[in-house]
Amino acid sequence: MGGGIASDLNGVIDMRIRWWVAPGIAATAALLAACGSSSASGSGSGAASPAGASATAAASSAPAAAAKPGTSAAGLTTAKTAKGTVLVTAQGYAVYMFAIDTPTKSNCDATCLKFWPALTGMPTAAAGSGLTGKFGTITGTGGITQATFDGHPLYLFAADKKPGEVNGNGINTSGGLWYALTPSGAKLAAAAKPAASATSGSTGGYGY
């Protein structure tokens, strides 16, 4: 009989142990599973969005800065514009002459050159341009080697912001008139417009 009581008592104790231990094991397993899921999720997120990815994407979508017109006289060619066909640089910017220049002297002083940059170096024609005029150089303002075409020292105009613009044609400033050059070496006919100031450095309404 004593053995029966002991056996019953052991059974009760065994059931109580199972009652308390089983839920604890289940809770621990659930906690470990949750931690593993969270870790995997965090790891996956980091792999999909590496550090600096957003900055790289933003930089790649930023617009490129506009190229600044060069003053090299190499590769001169021609281009059709709204005002006629003109001599242009290799980048497509209109080339100008100053009416009071001579074949051997530029009359554009240092202030003038801020608005009418001189083309420099020995000029050359781009392949297929059809230019047949005489190229040369002179010693320009400040001792620069300034390009010439058919006896005209060559310049750009600071208010021409992109290829194809001819905003300086017919302007009267810095003591004389400015004209875009045609492929034949002649001045481009100027459209009628109000007279601009002849004060050095003024370009009649273009903000200079």
Can you put this structure into words, describing what you see?
The longest helix is centred in the N-terminal third of the chain and has 47 residues, at 2-48. The strands form 3 sheets. Strands 3-8-7 form a 3-stranded antiparallel beta sheet, with no helix packed on it. A hairpin with a 2-residue loop joins strand 7 (172-173) and strand 8 (176-180). The termini are far apart. The protein has 208 residues and is α+β, with helices and mostly antiparallel strands. The relative contact order is 0.14. It is 29% helix and 15% strand.
Map the helices and strands.
Layout: H1 2-48, H2 53-61, E1 77-81, E2 84-88, E3 96-98, H3 110-113, E4 135-139, E5 145-149, E6 152-153, E7 172-173, E8 176-180
Antiparallel strand pairs: 1-2, 3-8, 4-5, 5-6, 7-8
Note the overall shape: globular
N-to-C terminal Cα separation, in Å?
A: 120 Å
- Average pLDDT reading: 76
Q: What spatial order of strands do you see in the largest sheet?
A: 3-8-7
Count of beta strands: 8
User: Strand content of the residues, in percent?
Assistant: 15-25%
Rg estimate, integer Å: 41 Å
Short description:
By secondary structure, the protein is α+β, with helices and mostly antiparallel strands.
